[in-house]
């Protein structure tokens, strides 16, 4: 214990005059995996945002003569059944897929966590009501729910995000509530109440940071799933409309060629995989940075 | 000490833990002997290494991170540290039994208490199921649990009753050595008194030797024959109970007594030991107590002899012999 | 043991306080008709075994739990049901120190933020510098080294954590503090340090303590007056000196005899308690200790009253005269 304090003394000086946000942000990227994840994600985002520079051609330009071409120097990732350049489609498609995946998962996490915290903290009837509602909610198959909401709201970027996130809310709520059950008997919550903290402040300032870790991991893991889910919506004409490229849609289009032209499946798959990996690594870094026990 | 009667002898036991690159010196050269039917109290604060000693005797230290680095544990002429794991299995629960601190977690919530005791019994004996059940009922009644409660589950028992079950389990095979690790710390005083009394009676009846681990000097005073005061993984003082309570010699022992609010005299202010226990990854050289010791001198930073200051009274302190009989 | 005289109007007055919990098996009478007063600068010890309702009593008084019935007066004002701003004012004057130094500090807040929290909530401090100064003063007051400002709870040992808990409770200079077993999780040597600290702080700042504990030697050391609780009710109430020299209730006697004494020359003579502890759920009207009491008689099945048998000495036992 004393050794730890000594270490503390030295880090104290370093930590001075740094806002908490910046110091947390810095700590996120202290470890090698988180750094790798961060660089990878920035790289992916840069490629997608600057797609016109790196793509080399229009993602929707058809070249039937060159349909289903294998990867070559001219077409880095080959072409699809309509002769469209895969590389360009992945870069342009990333714009939608990344946004849908990240924002959709974030929405789900925020919604689920809030419900979970409220249910877990208040307990009793409130908890019963919220959790039973979540049970009913999650009894509806995710895809079906997604389609129903999408149909009701109509196509469009923001509506798609809502449709994608709503199915994942009950899961988040259940996970957060489970964590809170173990946490809510701790005396520091009573101490907070005794010093006049409001219920909102107790829930979100004192309780939430102590139960957020599994949610961070779950959310980052869910991003890949959200991207593929978005493809389902596109497939039935509810998500992003063709011919606009999008990773999930590319995957499902490539399905029929899996034996003869696996590259149609491979490259969008790699794109989704790398993105999930990058965000996952960063998520772990964030979780550790928020936990003072893991601080060096 | 009479060599012939020595039942358990621990010699130069040394245990280290490795954690995140640091080496924690949990037990540093502990030696003591125990006769048949005798009870020894190990007294010390959290982290002093009391529980580690007991676990090392029973060889149930988590390995890794814990390593028994040196020393011998000789039980009835047999060195336990050299036995194979199979041979050790026969000794655990049969010759040596341990009572853990928390009765709430030591029992399986899905088994009736009777069956749990039966399981231990059957592991070490060739009883038929009927004989076994009969014996379990006997044991239960011995610790004061009516036979009707054989079929009840742990959650139906109160804390004190659960600890009785744990004790019954430990005593099921008539062990020759009982290791009791803070057996009453989780209990209320009135229940604690009942349990201690019961342990005492059973010990007398079965002539069991016992090592009682506790931080409570009162419990030691009421139950043990000899006392070893542990500080930073070492025995700093060892004596017969009355000798130790009447003539404590080591400054740490004196500090412990000064910290106790007394039931008998009125003290306006307590005299706590200043400072904190040392970091076991970075023990000070010489006497590990000198940074907190009110009488420390330069000599304390060197090797400290463990000497006999009165017959049977050992103390690890330079000053001890010189100020014999006096108190701070 | 301190010998002090207290007079004038009481700081805290508890009148027939009741706290019941609804549990599946019925109603748990955790605190059942408890009355007492505490004066400024006084320490009232509340002793009892686990589950006797002593912690619930403390929490009900300082409004962490809502009372089922009865009244709590703070300086003559009824605070039992105040809400909003008035409750906020009350909470600045009554505080609590918890038993478990591990779970009572938010693991995600460092020491200075933990202590700063109540200061911020009070809105009394305008500038950041003032806040920092006050925090530093509080840390100094309870003896935490300045260099530990930005340490997190897991980096500290139990004794230091408990000091942080004390600093947090003291932050707004309350008049009354409930100490809920503040030293029972600590080692003896550290326990003595914290007890000394609590007594010094009281001498300095003059607040009143309600000291809840199961440890009679600690309570003897720190308290002026003592209440002995058994299953939600007070069974004996008197000055500390009186309790240890002239205790009257059979439960008090049994409790005192059960403490393992460090006196090795006189083996303890324990009063045997037989029988099972009665349940606080839907209790029968009579004396709750009767099932274990060596002196139980038919009269014990009637409801018991806390009666003043001599000056400032209250006992709730119908056979008190016959037993003693």
From TrEMBL, chain B:
Is Acetylation tagged as a keyword? no
Q: Which GO terms describe its biological process?
A: peptide transport
User: Per UniProt, which keywords does this protein have?
Assistant: ATP-binding, Cell membrane, Membrane, Nucleotide-binding, Transport
Q: Does the keyword Calcium apply?
A: no
Top-rank lineage group of the source organism: Bacteria
Tell me the membrane topology, using the record's own terms: Peripheral membrane protein
Q: Which GO terms describe its molecular function?
A: ATP binding; ATP hydrolysis activity
| Residue ranges annotated for the ABC transporter domain, each copy included | 10-257
**Which Pfam families does the entry link to?**
ABC_tran, oligo_HPY
Name any GO cellular component annotation.
Answer: plasma membrane
The cellular location(s) given in this protein's UniProt record come to: Cell membrane
Q: Which family does it belong to?
A: Belongs to the ABC transporter superfamily.
Q: What is this protein called?
A: ABC transporter ATP-binding protein
Q: Which organism is it from?
A: Parablautia muri
TrEMBL record, chain C:
Task: Give start and end of each ABC transporter domain.
Answer: 12-256
* GO terms under biological process: peptide transport; transmembrane transport
Known Pfam families for this protein? ABC_tran, oligo_HPY
Gene Ontology molecular function:
ATP binding; ATP hydrolysis activity
- Show the InterPro entries listed in the entry: AAA+_ATPase, ABC_transp_ATP-bind, ABC_transporter-like_ATP-bd, Oligopep_ABC_C, P-loop_NTPase
Highest taxon of the source? Bacteria
Keywords in alphabetical order, please: ATP-binding, Nucleotide-binding, Transport
Keyword check for Transport, yes or no: yes
Protein family: Belongs to the ABC transporter superfamily.
Write down what this protein is called.
ATP-binding cassette domain-containing protein
Origin organism of this chain? Parablautia muri
Traced from the root, the source organism's taxonomic lineage reads: Bacteria, Bacillati, Bacillota, Clostridia, Lachnospirales
């Amino acid at each position: 214990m004393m050794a730890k304090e000594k270490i503390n003394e030295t880090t104290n000086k370093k930590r001075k005059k740094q806002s908490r946000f910046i110091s947390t942000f810095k700590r996120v990227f202290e470890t090698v995996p988180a750094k790798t994840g961060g660089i990878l994600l920035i790289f992916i985002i840069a490629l997608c945002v600057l797609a016109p520079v790196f793509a080399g051609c229009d993602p929707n330009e058809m070249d039937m003569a060159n349909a289903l071409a294998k990867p070559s120097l001219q077409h880095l990732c080959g072409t699809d059944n309509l002769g469209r350049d895969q590389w360009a489609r992945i870069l342009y498609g990333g714009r939608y897929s990344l946004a849908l995946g990240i924002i959709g998962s974030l929405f789900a996490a925020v919604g689920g966590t809030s419900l979970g915290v409220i249910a877990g903290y208040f307990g009793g009837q409130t908890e019963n009501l919220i959790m039973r509602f979540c049970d009913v909610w999650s009894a509806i198959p995710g895809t079906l729910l997604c389609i129903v909401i999408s149909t009701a709201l109509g196509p469009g970027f923001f509506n798609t995000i809502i449709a994608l996130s709503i199915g994942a809310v009950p899961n988040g709520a259940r996970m957060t509530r489970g964590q809170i059950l173990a946490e809510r008997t701790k005396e520091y919550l009573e101490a907070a109440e005794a010093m006049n903290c409001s219920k909102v402040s107790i829930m979100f300032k004192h309780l939430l940071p102590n139960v957020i870790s599994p949610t961070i991991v779950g959310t980052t893991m869910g991003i890949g799933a959200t991207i593929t889910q978005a493809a389902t919506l596109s497939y039935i004409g509810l998500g992003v409309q063709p011919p606009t490229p999008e990773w999930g849609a590319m995957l499902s289009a490539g399905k029929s060629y899996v034996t003869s032209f696996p590259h149609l499946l491979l490259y969008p798959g790699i794109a989704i995989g790398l993105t999930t990996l990058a965000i996952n690594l960063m998520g772990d870094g964030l979780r550790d940075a928020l936990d003072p026990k893991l601080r060096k | 000490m009479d060599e012939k009667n020595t039942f358990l002898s621990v010699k130069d036991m040394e245990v280290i833990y490795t954690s995140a690159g640091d080496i924690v010196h949990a037990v540093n050269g502990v030696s003591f002997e125990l006769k048949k039917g005798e009870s020894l109290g190990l007294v010390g604060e959290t982290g002093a290494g009391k529980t580690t000693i007991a676990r090392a005797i029973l060889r149930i230290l988590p390995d890794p991170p814990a390593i028994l680095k040196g020393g011998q544990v000789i039980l009835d002429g047999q060195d336990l540290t050299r036995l194979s794991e199979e041979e050790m299995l026969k000794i655990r629960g049969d010759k040596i039994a341990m009572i853990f601190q928390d009765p709430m977690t030591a029992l399986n919530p899905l088994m009736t208490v009777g069956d749990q005791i039966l399981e231990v019994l059957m592991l070490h004996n060739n009883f038929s199921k009927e004989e076994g059940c009969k014996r379990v009922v006997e044991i239960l009644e011995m610790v004061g649990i009516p036979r009707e409660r054989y079929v009840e589950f742990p959650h139906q028992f109160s804390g004190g009753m659960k600890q009785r079950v744990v004790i019954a389990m430990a005593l099921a095979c008539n062990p020759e050595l009982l290791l009791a690790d803070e057996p009453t710390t989780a209990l209320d005083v009135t229940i604690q008194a009942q349990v201690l009394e019961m342990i005492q009676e059973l010990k007398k009846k079965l002539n069991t030797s016992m090592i009682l681990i506790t931080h409570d000097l009162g419990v030691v005073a009421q139950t043990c024959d000899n006392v070893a005061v542990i500080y930073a993984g070492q025995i700093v003082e060892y004596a017969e109970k009355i000798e130790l309570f009447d003539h404590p010699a080591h400054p740490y022992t004196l500090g412990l007594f000064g910290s106790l609010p007394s039931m008998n005299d009125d003290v306006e202010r307590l005299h706590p030991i200043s400072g904190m226990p040392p970091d076991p990854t970075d023990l000070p050289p010489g006497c590990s107590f000198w940074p907190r010791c009110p009488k420390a001198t330069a000599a304390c930073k060197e090797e400290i002899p463990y000497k006999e200051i009165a017959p049977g009274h050992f103390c690890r302190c330079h000053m001890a012999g010189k100020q014999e009989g006096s108190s701070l | 043991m301190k010998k002090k005289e207290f007079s004038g109007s009481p700081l805290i007055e508890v009148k027939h306080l009741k706290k019941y919990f609804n549990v599946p098996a019925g109603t748990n009478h955790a605190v059942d008709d408890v009355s007492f007063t505490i004066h400024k600068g006084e320490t009232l010890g509340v002793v009892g075994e686990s589950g006797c309702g002593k912690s619930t009593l403390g929490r009900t008084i300082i409004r962490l739990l809502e009372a089922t019935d009865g009244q709590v007066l703070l300086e003559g004002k009824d605070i039992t049901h105040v809400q909003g701003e008035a409750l906020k004012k009350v909470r600045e004057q009554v505080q609590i120190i918890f038993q478990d130094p591990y779970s009572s500090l938010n693991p995600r807040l460092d020491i200075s933020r933990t202590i700063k929290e109540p200061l911020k909530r009070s809105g009394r401090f305008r500038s950041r510098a003032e806040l920092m100064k006050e925090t530093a003063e509080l840390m100094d007051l309870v003896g935490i080294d300045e260099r530990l400002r930005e340490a997190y709870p897991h980096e500290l040992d139990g004794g230091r954590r408990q000091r942080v808990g004390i600093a947090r409770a003291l932050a707004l200079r309350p008049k009354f503090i409930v100490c809920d077993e503040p030293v029972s999780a600590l080692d003896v040597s550290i326990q003595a340090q914290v007890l000394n600290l609590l007594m010094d702080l009281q001498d300095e700042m003059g607040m009143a303590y309600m000291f809840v504990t199961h440890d009679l030697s600690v309570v003897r050391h720190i308290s002026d007056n003592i209440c002995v609780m058994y299953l939600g009710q007070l069974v004996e109430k008197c000055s500390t000196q009186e309790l240890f020299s002239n205790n009257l209730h059979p439960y008090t006697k049994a409790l005192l005899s059960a403490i393992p004494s460090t006196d090795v020359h006189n083996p303890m003579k324990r009063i045997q308690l037989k029988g099972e502890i009665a349940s606080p759920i839907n209790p029968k009207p009579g004396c709750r200790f009767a099932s274990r009491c060596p002196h139980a008689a038919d009269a014990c099945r009637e409801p018991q009253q806390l009666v003043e048998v001599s000056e400032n000495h209250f006992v709730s036992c119908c056979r008190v005269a016959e037993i003693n």
